[in-house]
Amino acid sequence: MTDTAAHGQTLRQLGPTVYLPSAVYSTGVGAVAPVVVLTATSLGASPAAAAVVAGLLGLGQISGSLPAGVLISRVGERRTMLTAAAFAVPALVACMLAPTVPLLGAAVVLLGVCSAAWALARHAYLTEAVRPELRARAMSTLGGVGRIGTFTGPFLGAGAMHFAGLDGAYLVAIAAVGLATVVLIVLPPVPHDRTPPAGAERPRLWAIIRANRRTLRTLGLGVLLVGALRASRQTIVPLWGASLGLEPATIGLIYGVSGGIDMLLFYPAGKLMDRYGRRAAAVPAMALLGLAHVLLPLAGSAAGLTAVALLMGVGNGLSAGLVMTLGADASPAAGRAEFLGAWRLCSDVGQGGGPLLIGAVTAAASLTAAAVAVGGGGLLAAFLLHRWIKPPSSYA
Question: Taking the model in full, what pTM does it have?
Fold first, then answer.
């Protein structure tokens, strides 16, 4: 690839070939995310069991990260995404037609595995295709279109459910996955900037993990906390609103406004990281998320909760693309896909553990204690990221 193509045209060129399929696929996943719980309860599951079934999507993402990295290394990103889509469609059909809760749970796990493979393939592809000086903007834009998809998906699913019941959301998701696949097949891919030599020996997964264990246990710990902070935000705002006795519609509006602020910041966040280094966005983002959680116990009304949720939205928006950018920066040229699979695993474990931490601390103490504990994790994440993120001169 020429310098002009890699530097001057990459982001525009990636629009239809990379970001469009990702946005469409994310819309499909977003359409069914809030419906899984309702499907489980319609099959007779208790609220607690339905919550567990919904959490299986995250379990599938966690279990799919490492295998997806190996598959990408063997067959390439494009074939991995096509494979993921090929399995996602029957998984969605199974969710829609599942006669029992265990079968629904198995289908949700498979859907999570497919989502992990798709997301990791996009991450690995951008790491190869985009030059380092544009990397953060490319990654934050990928994160941004994903957030737009998961934000708009539930609205499309809700519209379809007016005509087809719960099945409508799954039909929207099936159509979205199919459309993303068609776009992926029809449009030509952007060529990689760096291609491994033909016949080169591929390192084994565990050898890659061992060779990069210092990065994974230092910066990877910070990324784990980033995932936990992001996921806890999605859980604790509705819980706090419910504890205040707010109407579900009011809670949804507060959460939606926070998400809107989040989406507006994805490109500025990437530009900030590209221009001033990753710390310039990472440290303030985690500090703001941590501070917002610490301030949550002071929110005694809808207005107070809105202010805290907006602060969370700013912090989360500043972290758009952060995990993918740091992973791309740290990834080795040999065994890159395997490393990124392990890297994503760190983030996914955090995302799965954040809500569990809130539940455990709330059960043992109170929701206030949970908010403060998570807030402390945010401040720790800011410290660790400041300590371990490399200076801009090392990005390659």
Answer: 0.85
Higher pLDDT, 197 or 226: 226
Q: Is 1 exposed, middle or buried (0-12, 13-18, 19+ CB in 10 A)?
A: middle
CATH code for the domain in which residue 358 is found? 1.20.1250.20
Among the three residues 195, 212, 232, which one is the final residue of a domain in this structure?
195
Let me know whether 44 and 128 are in one domain.
yes
In this structure, the number of other CB atoms found within 10 A of the CB of residue 172 comes to 27
Quickly count: other Cβ atoms within 10 Å of residue 248's Cβ. Answer: 10
What six digits make up the tokens of 147? 């957030």
Q: Shortest CA distance to 36 belongs to which of 90, 107, 86, 115? A: 107
Tell me the two tokens of residue 130: 């985009």
How many Å apart are CA 216 and CA 196, to the nearest integer?
A: 23
85: closest CA among 111, 55, 54? 111
Question: Which residue range forms the structural domain that includes residue 363?
Answer: 203-396
Q: What is the mean pLDDT of the chain?
A: 86
Give the number of domains in the chain. 2
- What pLDDT digit, counting tens, does each position of 331-369 carry? 888 888 899 999 999 998 988 888 778 878 888 888 899
Q: Does residue 163 carry a pLDDT above 60?
A: yes
